[in-house]
Amino acid sequence: MKVGIVGANGYSGIELIRLLQHHPYTDLTKMISHSTSGKNILELYPHLENFVDMSLEHIDIEEIAREVDLVFFATPAGVTKDLIPDFLEKGVTCIDVSGDFRLKKPEDYKQWYKKSPANDQYLQESVYGLPELNRHKIKEAKLIANPGCFPTATLLGLIPVLQHKVIDLYSIHIDAKTGVSGAGRNVNVANLFTEVNENIKAYKVGHHQHIPEIEQVIREISGEEAPISFVTHLIPINRGIMSTIYCDLIHNLSIEEIYQLYKEMYKNEPFIRIRQVGQYPTTKEIFGSNFCDIGLYVDERTNRLIIISVIDNLVKGASGQAIQNLNILAGWEETTGLMNVPLYP
Amino acid sequence: MKVGIVGANGYSGIELIRLLQHHPYTDLTKMISHSTSGKNILELYPHLENFVDMSLEHIDIEEIAREVDLVFFATPAGVTKDLIPDFLEKGVTCIDVSGDFRLKKPEDYKQWYKKSPANDQYLQESVYGLPELNRHKIKEAKLIANPGCFPTATLLGLIPVLQHKVIDLYSIHIDAKTGVSGAGRNVNVANLFTEVNENIKAYKVGHHQHIPEIEQVIREISGEEAPISFVTHLIPINRGIMSTIYCDLIHNLSIEEIYQLYKEMYKNEPFIRIRQVGQYPTTKEIFGSNFCDIGLYVDERTNRLIIISVIDNLVKGASGQAIQNLNILAGWEETTGLMNVPLYP
Amino acid sequence: MKVGIVGANGYSGIELIRLLQHHPYTDLTKMISHSTSGKNILELYPHLENFVDMSLEHIDIEEIAREVDLVFFATPAGVTKDLIPDFLEKGVTCIDVSGDFRLKKPEDYKQWYKKSPANDQYLQESVYGLPELNRHKIKEAKLIANPGCFPTATLLGLIPVLQHKVIDLYSIHIDAKTGVSGAGRNVNVANLFTEVNENIKAYKVGHHQHIPEIEQVIREISGEEAPISFVTHLIPINRGIMSTIYCDLIHNLSIEEIYQLYKEMYKNEPFIRIRQVGQYPTTKEIFGSNFCDIGLYVDERTNRLIIISVIDNLVKGASGQAIQNLNILAGWEETTGLMNVPLYP
Amino acid sequence: MKVGIVGANGYSGIELIRLLQHHPYTDLTKMISHSTSGKNILELYPHLENFVDMSLEHIDIEEIAREVDLVFFATPAGVTKDLIPDFLEKGVTCIDVSGDFRLKKPEDYKQWYKKSPANDQYLQESVYGLPELNRHKIKEAKLIANPGCFPTATLLGLIPVLQHKVIDLYSIHIDAKTGVSGAGRNVNVANLFTEVNENIKAYKVGHHQHIPEIEQVIREISGEEAPISFVTHLIPINRGIMSTIYCDLIHNLSIEEIYQLYKEMYKNEPFIRIRQVGQYPTTKEIFGSNFCDIGLYVDERTNRLIIISVIDNLVKGASGQAIQNLNILAGWEETTGLMNVPLYP
């Protein structure tokens, strides 16, 4: 299958390039970049030598539509809402790694992204590309809204207890930690090495655009409008997200019962690994891979469940999940090109 | 004043040495170490050249008691409970940086430290050395139990709302992140550079010995036995703790009201700095200093207060606070030797 | 082909496991560990879940010889010199990632490793497994001495000018920088996170056992006994080696001539990439891959050539090169299982 | 003494602010910034709360000259060459932390800085502010050119053997490693956390502007024009420089003789510490302090001397040395405000 990448020059873009190199059924034939068109990708990323030798181009929708079957969009917020409809009109399947088509309610996008939302028709058509939740819809989709990195880690941790209705929906506290690559390759004082190294920082407190995305899925599963507490922290690592989730159990469930519930729910999921009782995953254990590893603890003193969920933000949190969605769409084995061992140490 | 350090060869020990070098009224005349006695401290820590040139000695209580007025104990858990009583008998004032005398209930120590507790008489005599809470008691103390690093960051964040009774005591969630120096200089696979670097790890989930310490102070202030949720995370930095605290407000207080409450409560505290509304402290902003910086957010969607409190675990979380306690005890200006600017970046 | 790993529990061991998972023609059927036998590898490394589920065993040469065709040794220095002869006797091909069979002169091993050397017969039989230098000998070998990490980076940088005799052999200065994984997973105060983080350290100054290894290859190529200057530095990264090499040119060669010489020499090498004039490789650009990237500079002011050569110490510097040697031995495509894109960022 | 800082908002600027807070005889009354004037320094650096509460101002030379006695310039290259003459005209003493007045030959500045040089009169008037070399001239200076960070580390390592004429001047190889704060707080893709973390990079190969600065001092001491090899490497740490220097001994000197030579030469220097034979300094051992620590090795195989010299680039490599120069100028004890213990770990 011929594919293209819009926004190939960012970190999600080059992670797509990396993963597509290891994918047997795709042919990457177009790389688009607004800010660096005309340059060869090797000028920006010499580590890609021997793999790709291709220039970044200005966007030309007609031409792309003629040459590729599917486009990945690895663009900043606010770009695809205007761009993707034209691609869809021309019959190109779109996987949007940005957030423009994730929120079904236009007013949510307006409030949290501070931009005008996409056309409602497309918002409703788009499928939220979390395979573990929406695999059947993804198969038929023309437009996939690839989930955000924090929602991926958090929702994969929460879905079993949401679906089994064993937690108080109004008690969910999510304390998330992320590496810096999530911020992209954009120059910004806050992301200088000197500012991030030997530092921990809470950021976007109360304003993170992933809040409504998580709440939307909670609402879809539970039918309830339950606001969450959610604080994100910047950690001096390149890759990796840990979501530490606290929620009140509404029944007295033992850790063994909870563990079995997760094992059962995810028994056929190739990319989810549940740690044994008493073990908790670290981000290094999924580094460079498409896994989501989950650890569980029931605090009997407070009757709360603590869920620790980790992903690589650039893989399961972005480009790997996009390829997983492509595999589902195309009818290929879902793990195609994605079953690599995490890099340790 | 002549002072000694037992456990001078660990990280809290050398941080005491560093701070005492800058303290005008003390004379460090004894350094004791169990594992490295006989060595000059410069063999272990060449960075101290030009400041100290002294050998580490085996412990000899008689001799220490003759030569010094006050001893700092920077020892692992389980050492001072047996050692300090002998020092007290000989009239030596003791500041214990370890956890042996912090928990007033012997059964708490037994449960959380998995060791037999100190003699109850000394447990009751000891003063919990959090100056912002117990300044008056510290003045008269013979034995100070210097608070743990996580309790220091967390309690300084919580005390204003605990004392003003504006939060639901049963809603407190504490998500704590720490640098690696808290683990000391002990060899351990888990603390190798390769294992910690580019990693985030939750540890001691449900079993951290700082849980009962925090709950004890909550109980003392509120009179209630309110269990907390508390998870600690290891972050690839050397120094720094961030405690992100979530709690339900029981009244509808605005962020401005909360901010004023903190500003008022801490207006005379030299080491507490409250960030303006909308600003949150990072650990780098207190690096190497005795400050505790606090940021506040009221989430109106959930009516929860989020408190972000940071300290340097080796300074305000250990050795700096020990010096602060010494200053109070001795009747010196409380900031003596401690008013240094954080190192940035 | 059935293969085993002796020393599977160290970092080179698990890197072999990782790479073998992606190798189509091998079957890893034995994992041996002295210190952790009896444990499942997943207890030590949960990141391997879904890939291997196998216990580490005590060594039993008879049994291993029956069950596997080839063994990788990822053991500390001093182990294989006694162990490998027994394997060879039983017809097992051996690839030794440790240094025991690299030095042809027994007295060199004695001097630099401070241990008694292997039996001379085996020393002479062993083939130094640097494919770019010894590909033809490797094809026929029964015992491969896989090169050290620093020699790999350094020699690949030097070989073209050594073979073309354009440098003064007595002018070679090598300033090497390495990540911490080279030290293995052994507990050691010097490798604690707190000691390595935010630090640069020169180590083994004048005593590094890779000095005679580099000099041996220089001697083999040039016929001269030319001592080198070589200092290694520990850098706070997990993976990666940079060797900065300085040498005096004996002719006035321009940078373009030098560049052409390298391009020509390495034109068929799949894992060597020469940066264009004016560009220099960084270690991140080969992270997780088997590449050696090389940059070149001719300083006309001093008539010196500066060569910057980078590898991932665990891949091209250890386990990746071992697989490359296996591929050559077995007659498979040399890049089999090794052509992965570096992980960036 | 009333002092001002031009360029107070950069990293050298805030390091000056930090050190001046601990200095008993100065009063910081003016902070100037081109890019952030109008802002309070606390908006940019909240860690300074409780120490300074002052706005950054546009430059007004008349006003500054009226209000302060001495100005520190912590500006990018190319600013002070035009600015400082006006300050000197008005009788203000100037300490220039930038490189504009370091090179005595205008053509050197033109070649290496790619800018037009300062007026020759001022170039000749300026005193190169390396106290260990030029203490007597500094006492009388009106304009001090504070040395660069690499030259400081390197020259302090070389001066004893240069002055004693024991090395071949044409054999000097300097391999330098630096933390990222040397690059300032300027936004730049190359200095993003994601690009620097887990990476080693050689930069400005052959073009570093500190090359002529080092060569100038070699020329001044030896009378010879001896070009050096000098390569700088970016290391993922915030602070710290290590200069590894290789040079050929022209006599057969033992390590003990070399060690005695250094001890003797620097016996009265408060900020230079020579490690014992067999010990080498690490950058962490001088972190946050004004020390330059030096280790020495004589390689008898090559008859080369290897010198390892470390400084904190923001302290001895910039702002600390500037304060040291101020102390000398003002006739105060040279260590005033600078004798702080390195922060470890």
TrEMBL record, chains A, B, C, D:
Enzyme class: oxidoreductase
EC nos: 1.2.1.38
PROSITE patterns in the cross-refs: ARGC
This protein's record includes keyword Manganese: no
Pathway named in the protein's UniProt entry: Amino-acid biosynthesis; L-arginine biosynthesis; N(2)-acetyl-L-ornithine from L-glutamate: step 3/4
Keywords associated with the record: Amino-acid biosynthesis, Arginine biosynthesis, Cytoplasm, NADP, Oxidoreductase
Keyword Transmembrane helix: no
Residues covered by the Semialdehyde dehydrogenase NAD-binding domain: 2-141
Active-site residues from the entry: 149
Annotated GO MF terms: N-acetyl-gamma-glutamyl-phosphate reductase activity
Pfam family of the protein (one): Semialdhyde_dh
Record's subcellular location: Cytoplasm
Catalytic activity: N-acetyl-L-glutamate 5-semialdehyde + phosphate + NADP(+) = N-acetyl-L-glutamyl 5-phosphate + NADPH + H(+)
PANTHER family (UniProt xref): N-ACETYL-GAMMA-GLUTAMYL-PHOSPHATE REDUCTASE, CHLOROPLASTIC-RELATED, N-ACETYL-GAMMA-GLUTAMYL-PHOSPHATE REDUCTASE, CHLOROPLASTIC-RELATED-RELATED
Family: Belongs to the NAGSA dehydrogenase family. Type 1 subfamily.
Function according to Swiss-Prot or TrEMBL: Catalyzes the NADPH-dependent reduction of N-acetyl-5-glutamyl phosphate to yield N-acetyl-L-glutamate 5-semialdehyde.
NCBIfam families with a match to the protein in the record: argC (TIGR01850)
Protein name according to UniProt: N-acetyl-gamma-glutamyl-phosphate reductase
Organism: Pallidibacillus thermolactis
Classification lineage: Bacteria, Bacillati, Bacillota, Bacilli, Bacillales
